From TrEMBL, chains A, B:
InterPro entries hit by this protein: Ala_racemase_N, D-amino_acid_metab_enzyme, D-ser_dehydrat-like_dom, D-ser_dehydrat-like_sf, PLP-binding_barrel
Pfam families: Ala_racemase_N, D-ser_dehydrat
Region Disordered, residue ranges: 1-24
Family under the similarity heading: Belongs to the DSD1 family.
SUPFAM superfamilies found in the cross-reference section: PLP-binding barrel
Name the UniProt record assigns to this protein: Amino acid deaminase
Compositionally biased tracts (Polar residues): 1-14
Domain D-serine dehydratase-like: 300-400
Length: 413, 413
């Protein structure tokens, strides 16, 4: 009845070191053989999402540079590049370094490059062959970058970040953008390669109209700087879009007269495994605005965990904590299985109500009629949002529809 | 002026792979040479805390098995064991595996052992020489564990978890405890080794009185089961205590008539680096109850990050996100330095107000008179609580008072 397989049971000290939260479990049955909790991606919806978003970008004449910070899973970067992505977007230099190490060579840092140690990583990446773009939004940073890259004998392509009042980073008005562009164009060590924005920080009444206007502002500034001859590259980049409003950005790029002159780049991240919360709702918005899209993205990421204790009537404690799953919302129980059971025989979680999470535990209020629950029952939980689930794991299992582990992927947070 | 050192700049693909969020930075100046953001432990308060809690336990006649889930940093486990700790407490079998791999051999799983794959890890650990204790709180789990360990030819020492109504795991009443103890004592494959509890789930009016009563209940049950001859070990264990109410538990153990017959074990985790939020407040409570303790614990863990953008008056965006620091509370700016500056010349963060965090960014509202802020300024942030800061990092820097990196430690989440 027990099944102690050799690779969950290393007997030398060094073999234990690879453990972390999981081990490589390829070929195993998730409901029988895998140490839980475990983060799990289902292949079918993943493949659907990869193809769907690539086709979406292409239909709008845009390139795709998926935001890699979501997953920091180079195996997924490879899948995204194989599906046709133009590059990978990242948030920090160590993230760029990890992506480059795994073969992603066109890297878009959708953030300012600050700190001499991070600049040193950028220099080394470019020397090693990376095509690295970074954003800038102020003269001091431009001056420092110009000095560092000129001294290194390199030319760093930079994108001016276009921000909004009350938003995050980025130039607040178009006069700042033009002045910064002239500053960059005049400096050795830098070349102006385009404009960058993030519509996720645009807020207010009628967000769709505001986001369209923001996309149009990006496009207008692009044309204006091109007319002034400030770009130092053949096909300047304009890039924006997270995973909630990408349709509106794609439309403003499609309608912006960019073809043949500019390189529009979309960079959603969460789309790749989608969501059971915030992004599922955002996707309903996309599909309401765009009935031509028919079906949208499919949730592909879940965390499997087991009932740990049934200490009093109506209460299950599940061995799943804040350290295992994203906490924008409490996790959502999707389906339950008996441990060692068959995927064709799911058990109900109807009426299961997650009330609280601690670092390593989840509290579930059970309905009156939940008499069949057993310690060890395996529950698949949906999360929101995926970025904060991925970063809880060093190993993530890819499974087929039968919940057999096809592959185990490393993350690089 | 620039300083591109060889080890931030690997030039072969494989060398990039070790990157994650940081690199080993021993000997470097945190304000000059280290890729930020970075998690940082200061040696002086760390050493103070290690000695302080060990002395506290010994003064109360208790052993210390610090909760390792807080840090999952085996280098800290070694420091704790060197300071006199009896063992290391952990929350999951993969955590036990990681601690054992790094040389911790006495492991207290302060949780139920569920799932056949996790039981397989436990079997392998015991076969490899670990002294592993786990908790139980129900007959089904006891039956399964008995079967698995009997079949493996091993005897698993188990601690009955003592819970409270409306709490987390654990037997709700003393009749259940006695029945479960008899069940365990009758089974091959298991031996009853003691009682376990966690006072952090005891809530209500006058928490100190309730926690004392809870500690006394542990002690009473311990004597009762011993009188009935249900323990299978020479000196049965009684263990409780997190990092907020450990003084009350220690006092009930000290006053419980345990000497020479039982092994009282305290298992706080957060004490080792203490806190700038919840646990700082909890510690004030300890010191108010126990004036004889004079000085208490000192915060030792901070996250250093840089101003990334100053996009509009009164707003700084710092390159520090939810993915870098615990989020029970917004992080607290403690001190600021100019990048490349000297630790003796700190700059003010008076009136700096963290208003919001995103995955990779922190929004700081600056006071009117904060005219000297520059992009690149380095800010040390305090966090609450430490568990959810440690798990954001794979590498943590140990620094001296001059902010030179003494060592870089791996975490094993």
């Amino acid at each position: 009845m027990t099944h102690f397989t050799s690779d969950t049971a290393p007997t030398t000290a060094s073999a234990w070191k690879d453990g972390h939260k999981g081990t490589r479990e390829t070929g195993r049955d998730l409901l029988t053989d895998v140490s839980l909790p475990a983060a799990v991606i289902q292949e079918a919806p993943l493949a659907h999402n990869l193809a769907w978003m690539q086709a979406f970008a292409e239909r709008h004449g845009a390139k795709l540079a998926p935001h890699g910070k979501t997953t920091m899973t180079p195996a997924l970067f490879r899948r995204q590049l194989e599906a046709g992505a133009w590059g990978i977007t990242l948030a920090t230099l160590p993230q760029c370094r990890a992506a480059f190490a795994e073969g992603a060579t066109r890297l878009l840092l959708a953030n300012q490059l600050i700190g001499r140690a991070n600049m040193a990583i950028a220099v080394a990446l470019i020397r090693a062959g990376a095509e690295l773009y970074v954003t800038v939004d102020g003269h001091d940073n431009v001056a420092e970058l110009g000095e560092v890259f000129d001294e290194a004998g390199l030319t760093l392509p930079v994108l001016i970040e276009v921000g909004v009042a009350g938003g995050r980073c980025g130039c607040r008005d178009d006069g700042q953008i033009a002045a910064l562009a002239r500053d960059i164009a005049a400096r050795p060590g830098l070349t102006l390669a385009g404009l960058e924005g993030y519509e996720g920080v645009v807020h207010g009444d009628d967000p769709a109209a505001r986001i369209r206007a923001y996309g149009e502002r990006l496009v207008e500034n692009l044309h204006r700087l091109a007319d002034e001859g400030l770009f130092g590259v053949a096909s300047p980049i304009v890039t924006a879009s997270g995973s909630a409003w990408y349709d509106l950005i794609a439309e403003t790029f499609r309608d912006g007269g960019l073809e043949g002159r500019f390189t529009p780049v979309l960079r959603p991240g969460c789309y790749v495994v989608h969501d059971h919360g915030l992004y599922r709702e955002a996707q309903r918005g996309v599909l309401a605005r765009r009935p031509d899209l028919h079906e949208g993205l499919r949730p592909a990421l879940t965390v499997y965990a087991q009932v740990q204790s049934l200490p009093e009537p109506g209460l299950a404690i599940v061995a799943l904590g804040k350290r295992d799953i994203g906490g924008d919302r409490l996790p959502e129980p999707l389906v339950r299985y008996r441990e060692g059971g068959r995927v064709e025989a799911p058990l109900s979680v109807a009426g299961w109500d997650v009330t609280r999470q601690m670092d390593q535990h989840t509290f579930v209020a059970l309905p009156e009629d939940a008499k069949d629950v057993k310690v060890g029952d395996v529950i698949a939980f949906g999360a929101s949002h995926p970025c904060l689930t991925f970063d809880k794991w060093r190993l993530i299992h890819l499974v087929d529809d039968g919940l057999t582990v096809i592959d185990t992927w490393e993350t690089y947070f």
